Each structure stands twice: as C-alpha cells, then as structure tokens.
Amino acid sequence: MRRREALAVLAGGTFFSRTAAAHPTPVGTPGEGTPRTREDTYGPVGRVEIEGTTDAVVTPDGATAFVAATTGYAVVDLSDPTDPTVIAERRGLLSDRENGPLRGIYDVKRSGDTLLVVGPANPGQSAIAGALVVDVSDPADPQHRSFYETPYPIHNAFLDGDTAYLTANTGERRRLAIVDVSGEPTAIAEWDLTDYDDDWELPPPIPRILHDVYVQDDVAYLAHWDAGTWLLDVSDPSEPSVISHIGRGPETVADDFRYGDDSYDALPGNDHYAAVDEAGDLLAIGREAWATEDLPEGGPGGIDLYDISDPAAPRQLSTIQPPPTPDATQEGSWTTAHNFEFRDGVLYSAWYRGGVKRHDVSDPTAPEQLTWWADRPHAEFWTARVGVPGSTFVASSRATTDSAAALYVFPDGPGETTWGFGDDPAVATRSPTAIGTDAPSETAADGPGFGALTGLAGIGVGTLAWWRSRSE
Predict the structure, then answer these.
(1) CATH of residue 451
(2) Could you give the C-alpha distances from 373 to 258, 330, 380, 404, in angstroms and in order?
C-alpha cells in the first residue's frame, strides 16, 4: 500500500488489522501473558521487530524512522503505517578498527540528510567510543561518512545542522562536547558546569552527570541529573554561555547526596530528558526515578512543564504524573518518564511499561490526557515521536523478559487501552486515567537511561471500530 493510500485509509477508518514482525535491566513482569485474541478499543496499527531497539527519530514527513539498536542501527519505511518495514540495517559498526565494533548504541539523531549514531551509552559496553556520521540522503542505502572517536562514552547526543552536541562524562568531568561534523569532525568547544561555577565541585561527579541534550533555536537544554537542567546560549557554539538553571544549588545537591545510598535513583532531581515546543516557550523536563527502601516517595518520576517565554526566568506550571504501579522500585514494573516530543500543542511521551501517552498541553497549567496505550508485560517504551500529524505517531519498545524489541505505529488520536493496569487492587487505589497536576512552583529556577508483542492478533476489530466512530 502506498503512503497516500495508507493515510487515506487511516483517516477514513477502514484499515485492516496487520502485524509486522546508564539504563539498568529490570527484572520484568512474570509472563502472565496477553490473550492471543483480544479487542483493543485503541491500539497500534503496525509493528516491526528490531533487535536491540532503544531510541528512535522520525523524518519531518513521517515517512522514515531511524532506530538505535544497541549493536547498530536500523532504517524503517513508514510509508504504509500498517506495515512498517526495515529497509536498511547496519550492525558491527567499525568492525575494521582495532577496538571495534562500536556497541552500546542507545541514541541516534538526524538533521537533514545526516544521521548521527553514538555510543557506547555506558562505560564498558564497547572498547571504542564516538560519533558515527552517516549520509542518509538515500535512507535505504546509508553511507558512513566519518567517525569522531572520543575518550568518553556517549549516552546521548543532538545534531543541529552540522553541529553535534555530545554528552561527555568521564572521570571527574561531566560536560557537554560540541563538534563540527560538516567535514572531518572537529572539536569546537566543551562546557562544564564546574568551570562555570566551581561550587559544583562540591557534589561528587555521579549526581551531576550530563544525561541528555536538546538544541533548538540556538539554545541547548542540558539535563544534568541531580544538578538540574541548564539552558545555554549556543548561538556561537565555540562560546556557550549560561542563560538559566532549573534545579537545586550545588550545596543542596551535595548535602542531599550521600555516595552509595538511594538518593541517586530517587527524587528530587533525576533530570533525565528535556525538550521544548516549537515556539521555544514551553519546556518539559522528564525525571526518571524510582522508589527505594529509604525513599519510598522517590518515584516513579513524571514530566514537569515550565514557562520559558523568558528563558532567563523559568517558571514551573504543572507536573504530568506517571502511570500508577503497585511497585515503583527498579525491581517492579517501570512506569517512570522517559523520552518525549512536542508537536502542535500535544506532548507525546513514553513511560517504559507505563506505555505511551498523548497530552493536550495547549493550557500547560492543566495538561489533559488524550491517549494512553500500555501492555505492561510485553512493551517497554523508550520514546514517542510524531509520524504524520493527525494520522500517526511511533514509539520504540525495548525487549522485555516476555517479548522482542520493536517499533510501533499508533493512530494520532484519542483513545485508551491499558493491559496490566486497573485490575490490580494495589493499582486500583489510583485512577489509571488521572494525570494529576502539582501546584506551580514559586521558585523553580535558582539562577543564571541511565519488547513487544509476539502477536497482536485481534487488535484490528476494536481499533477499526474506534476509527469508524471517529469518522462518523
């Protein structure tokens, strides 16, 4: 089915059911299993298994997805959303090098016809580390253009035009590395919060790790775990400068953190991922956190929304609470926030086994949940990304103890089906449809991680009915 026909079918509600084939590993949910035949009132329209799936990005037209796959990367044709198809897959990257291959690939980023593939995400996963620059002008035939080798692992990165922003955590340093990848990759600059303010040497390196970076309109948003989120002016990438900081100060972080205890895993802090809307006025900060024996209130973490219309004075507006779980520890079913994306007043988010969600954030003081799909035993979502607005979005699920990793395609519309939620007495004490919002913070700013169903038989009937009712 060609893309235009497929999207028309989706919009008309007459598609057919079809099934395509620093993050610790959770214990997983025992395989109680999802019924082989079931009817989702809302659910995925397509799915393709990709070994090692972690993060994913999608082209602006929604036709192609690039998937980080731990030992390599994959390219997926989304032109028929009911039949996502792997059109290229590259494994054993840099095997010809003495220390190759490159492993631990948890992140890919795309800008124009260039794909950035980085790794390893964590120390010890690979003997070689760095950023692979790939020409994807022909997505079915990626061409490796260059490689920027680093002395540090790269957990996450961002690509803005020809400028790569890399997380660079090693030894005592927790910093951002900026690299020009237009030709042979060349270092531009580094930024370390301890260079900006030496008081940040008070906490040990672990709670100030740089976990992720997002860049838009000459501003870089750095999620520095317990050291908070930093906004940097990168209009001149060779001289990044601080705009503002959201979070606790260095003395508070040092006092709150005791090396070896539970405070690294639990709230407060745990700034894991940050992104802004198209206008750059609304910032979301996801907090990956778990409850612990010492800090039972320390998780799971949600997504905080901030007004940054004045980027020098961020102001917290609300919090999107995580899906409920009877066990919020790392040994339980993870429902903490992971990665997300804004588009047209909607926040698309992934919550590991808490599933994927869509929220209307047109009023960010009162986000409204529009969509929730979860299959707690079989899907553990890493990210949610827009495909074709109004038609599809995609979500990547890493492997669970019961199922393979995969890339899913969902209808970009309202609905809810949650397998594994709502029928547990420990869960039933909280409404699975309530998102909750915390009271706005008066002082949010204090100055200038680290699959899928083996068969989706039966999803078509209920989903078809949903689409038909929507078109009536």
Answers:
(1) 2.130.10.10
(2) 38, 22, 11, 18
d(CA 242, CA 231): 6
| Alpha-carbon 381 to chain mean position | 8
The answer to whether residues 386 and 371 touch, using CB atoms and an 8 Å cutoff, is no
Determine how many CB atoms are found less than 10 A away from the CB of residue 225: 26
Supply the angle between the helices 459-471 and 3-12 in degrees, to the nearest 10.
70
Q: Are 283 and 219 spatial neighbours (Cβ–Cβ below 8 Å)?
A: no
The conformational region for residue 267 under phi > 0 = left, psi -120 to 50 = alpha, else beta, is: beta
Q: Is residue 243 a contact partner of residue 196, using CB atoms and an 8 Å limit?
A: no
R_g (Cα) of the chain, nearest Å: 21
Contact 157, 213 (CB under 8 A): yes
Q: How far is CA 254 from the centre of its chain?
A: 28
Query: What is the C-alpha separation between 23 and 104, in angstroms, rounded?
Result: 11
* Residue 51 to residue 405: CA distance in whole angstroms: 6
Distances (CA, A) of 364 to 286, 354, 435: 15, 22, 13
For residue 259, which phi and psi values (nearest 5 degrees)? Answer: -55, 130
The predicted structure's pLDDT at residue 221: 98
In angstroms, how far is CA 444 from the centroid of its own chain?
A: 23
* Total domain count, the chain: 1
Contact 158, 165 (CB under 8 A): yes
Which residue shows structure tokens 């040497």?
A: 201
Distance CA 68, CA 64 (A): 13
Which domain range does residue 152 map to?
3-471
pLDDT at residue 232 is higher than 90: yes
SS3 237: coil
Tens digits of per-residue pLDDT, 417-463? 998 886 543 332 223 322 222 333 322 332 324 422 222 222 232 33
pLDDT at res. 261: 61
* C-alpha closest to that of 44 among 461, 459, 358: 459
Q: In the structure encoding, which two tokens stand for residue 453, read together?
A: 């169903």
